[in-house]
Amino acid sequence: MTPLRLVVVDDHPVVRDGLRGMLGTQPDFDVVGEAAGGTEALAVVRATSPDVVLTDLRMPEPSGAALIRLIAPEVKVLVLTTHDTDSDVLPAIEAGAVGYLLKDAPREELFRAVRAAARGETVLAPSVAALLLSRVRPQRPLVAQLSAREREVLALIAEGRTNRDAAALLHISEATVKTHLLHIYAKLEVPDRASAVAAAYRRGILK
Q1: CATH number of this structure's domain 4-136
Q2: Domain 143-202 listed as CATH 2.30.42.10
Q3: Distance, first Cα to last Cα, the chain
């Protein structure tokens, strides 16, 4: 199988070195170039024809959405940054980025995101997904919709507890915990645990 051709764009040399080393551990990845800013990135992309560009947003011009707009959709762009505010996320997604991760993402999550981005699939950090959902859905008071037990389960999940842990702490069965989680997902209109926790913090259900 031909390795995915990757370009890393970040204005911090240590970050670029770290990403190159990390990505280089995967046999299906080939880091063919790197750049410290937008102008250099454009030249590297033209010279190497990568499958995926991993880029930060705040760096020498053209940066952020401007850079993404110049290379997408011909090249898949995966944003890798520390910023998840409206002013960063929305322009990047609108410009054509297929993925948006934060730099504290586990390495396995990053590897999966790169492969997904190469296939044109959208990959979003939970906080980013929650932000985008808040832009397309009207806000509704959700605290009253969650039962006291559902809020207890959600709080334990937010602490990183497993279903088994939650069941033991609440003196209920694991199956009951799973049922509560399904109800929580439905009420918060989210697909999984991470999204439920992100939505709960954003809407004030969890403090």
Answers
A1: 3.40.50.2300
A2: no
A3: 47
Place of tokens 């290379």: 71
pLDDT tens column, 38-51? 999 999 999 999 99
**How far is it, in rounded angstroms, from Cα 100 to Cα 80?**
6
Q: How far is the C-alpha of 51 from the C-alpha of 163, rounded, in Å?
A: 39
Domain boundaries, the chain: 4-136, 143-202
- Angstrom distance (rounded) from CA 196 to CA 207: 14
Strand order in the sheet with 4-9: 29-35, 4-9, 52-55, 76-81, 99-102, 123-124
Tally of CA atoms within 13 A in the half-sphere of 8 that contains its CB: 22
Residue type, 152: E
Considering the entire predicted model, what is its pTM?
Answer: 0.67
Residues 6+ apart with CB under 8 A from 148: none
